[in-house]
Amino acid sequence: MAAAAAAAVQPASEACAADAAGAALAARLRSGDTSGLPPPPYPPLRGSEPGSFAHGTITARLPAILASMLADLEAEGWGGTPGGEQAAAAVAEMVALREAMLADAALEALRVDGAGPQTQVLLESANACVELATSRQQQQQQQQQHDGGGGGSAARATWLGLPWLLVECYMYAAIHAAMQAGGDRQPALAAHDPFARQKAAGWVKSAAAAAELAEETELLLNMLASPNLPAGPGLASTGAVGAVVPAAAAAAACRTALAAGLLMSLWGNKADLSLLVNAAALDGAALSSAEERGGGGASAGGGGGGGGDGVPPLSRVIVDDSEEVLAALAGLMARRAEAAASGGGGGGGVRVDIVLDNSGLELFADLCLADLLLEAGAADRVALHGKPIPWFVSDTLAADLEALLASCEAEAPPQGAQVSASAWQPVRRLAGRWRAHLAAGRWTWAAHPFWCTPAPFCWMAAAAPDLYGSLYGSGLVVLKGDLNYRKLTHDCRWPHTTPFRTALQGFGPAPLVALRTLKADVAVGLQPGQSQALDAEDPNWLVNGKWGMVQAAL
Question: Where is the Damage-control phosphatase ARMT1-like metal-binding domain (predicted)?
């Protein structure tokens, strides 16, 4: 991805502002003032429990991710290039990182001489989070020894001894540090995404699923553009504005489109490369399978029907607040209509924020939702929040958004994709619409450093008040994926029946909804007995990505 194209998504002035905000974040974490930075109220997930998903992740999956990434770097042929020497040094650092992980060594402070401001912020934030977690762990143990009359061993600030979320974030920060070590002397390497090959392979494998999603999304957009229905803001040229139709019919059409968009975005989370050692294992067709799209049948899920207006019951959505979310979106539509009727013109500037997760197929599904939000009249603008650095293998960068649009605009699908050129045309048409949304400012992009720290979201108001303040003005914040859910809930062992709002620990800049398929053993908001029923039906329900949540705090 050309640097200029990626930079166009986020202006330099915004990037500088984010760096300055990130510096304040790092300073806040290191200040020693922990007010506004609450600890988890229950034990955090750790790799120190043999047989746990966290233990398997740290001892097997993360080392495998590093090995795959190192193989890609070597295959890219940096030898003999201006960045070759630094690439070799980066590989050596990451080999040492992998060995330290396998040996359960202590986490060392991350440093890069001459690092740019963004890198410095991210490394300082990671180091400060490690220091704070270590200090709190030691204090807790000392208190336990005092209460119990002594005994116990010193807290271990190691890969298995510290919280899983913390050490996983630390690994990606360490990878970034290794890639940045050349600084201005090796700009090509510093700007390189070491996971780019895996992302590209995943997109090729999922192109057929993207084509299916595009066809379905076009049907929904055409329904909203029907002359029998009032138009959304993107359809002003169709002549549909002012059409006389029953209000109930218009509301039902918008509801159907938005409900479908939520499901697309939810199950797009299946495309998570950080859970795959080999991107070739990605089965894009799974996204559109009948079982995961919905369908009847009894299940331990039972988390609400989500039915009505063309939305079938979802046996695998174990907590389903879709009804409440659709009602909230209807409220945003009414707010825009009232503002327009009173001479507000643009509808009052209603904004929906989507905190993105994975690139590729999931990003494509998220953009389908973003398009439907505009066309249904639920928002004037959709703010897309991505990551500033390569993160958790497949998380979305500005370059990934640009690469996806460029691929979708091509006359033919990516080479090797199992989809015909004719079936690709709906994808091309959507890409044209999406370019127009970005050019007109209906879609915006931001990548705050806070998203690439180990900090839970309940720290955001204190540690990143600028980001918290920007979300405060949102009509709805959509948080995608498992990592965002883990940060929402402080990645600890809450009882499964804990109310979702309780688990947020005060985080609530705006109405929010989490769209997540379960890939870590933290889940809240379940009904009494529901987790036991799920255990009986599927012992791996918490981690295998086959179960979903649409969980809201509105």
Answer: 58-532
